[in-house]
Amino acid sequence: MSNPPLQLLIDALNDFVAVASPEGIILAANENWRRNAERLGLLQFQVGCDYTAALAALAENGDRRAPALSKAFRQVSTGARQIVRCLYAGSGPLGGRDFNVTLSGMESGGSRTVLISALDMTELNELKDDLRRSHGKVLQAQERERREVARELHDSTAQILAALNLNLINLGTSVEGMGIEKTIADCKSAVDDLLHEIRSISFLAHPPELLHHGLPGAIKNLSSGFAARTGLSIDLQIADIGEASRTVEATLYRLVQEALAGIHRHPGARHASVQLMGNRRHLSLIISDDREGPNEADVHSPMPLGVGVMGMDERLKELGGSLSIRRTEAGTTVTATLPRHQVSNSDR
User: Fold this and answer.
1) What is the pLDDT of residues 252-270, one digit of tens each?
2) At the topology level of CATH, where does 208-347 sit?
3) What is the rounded CA–CA span in Å between residue 211 and residue 195?
4) Where exactly are the structural domains of the chain?
5) What pTM, to 2 d.p., does this model score?
6) How many degrees, rounded to 5, is the angle at CA 180 between CA 177 and CA 185?
7) 103-136: burial string, b at 16+ Cβ within 10 Å, e else
8) Which fold would CATH assign to domain 4-120?
């Protein structure tokens, strides 16, 4: 029979909690324990039942974690150990659930009891797994970016430097008046090409437009230049958004680039709009066009605005933001939201 003050105490706990005698008989259990046992049909874990016998039955049915709990219970019930913590991955009715189980010895009135507390860690572990998967995707995206920069350096910049070096060698061995002017001209051309490549790579790393004009001005210049080159009609609604992290600004700028490029690549779009706004904590970017399409809100659907936009999804998640794409009969809309002062590793 349960002790009323003890029952009140354990009922106030959020974990699944029970109190057992040294022999293993469950003397009391809080509401969470009782409700969970009833819901899962675990009659062997109700008050008055033998906890150790229930663990033995689980072990006979193939539960590989139950013997560890039985051993821990014996250690605590005999006083060999005062407290034991175990990780329990459930099986059978408890399959798919993870628990952090703590067994503690208690002395009261000259008799010993064992407090069994189980904290459900399932959701937390799932969140950790999601975080690891997301982090892995971010690392893959970063590795792709590094490979792209390395390929640019190898295929273009390195070749220009090799040609320049060869021209300088030729210049050093040239006889005065014999091909010197042409070699010098080739060197100047190679330097011009090299500067162009370096500026291109630098632009990919951080657009200079952002440094000179800020995010609103950079997006205005980007949109007007894109409209002039492609003939696409672009409406702008850009507010004075104030200060934001360099990484956040670059990410939103890239998203406008990728979205406009995707709109241009796919036929049917004649008009687009770009809206940039912000509040005290967040910046929001909305890009829409008049391409007809099915109603679809999945950013990873087969008809995205472009591969680059899909890649931006992981980047926004890394910075604590979100990205959604919605296609209706009226057109396609990309919506991105980012914390304005989120700091990533590149900002530190």
Assistant:
1) 988 888 888 888 777 677 8
2) Heat Shock Protein 90 (3.30.565)
3) 19
4) 4-120, 125-205, 208-347
5) 0.44
6) 140
7) bbbeeeeeeebbbbbbebbeeeeeeeeeeeeeee
8) Beta-Lactamase (3.30.450)
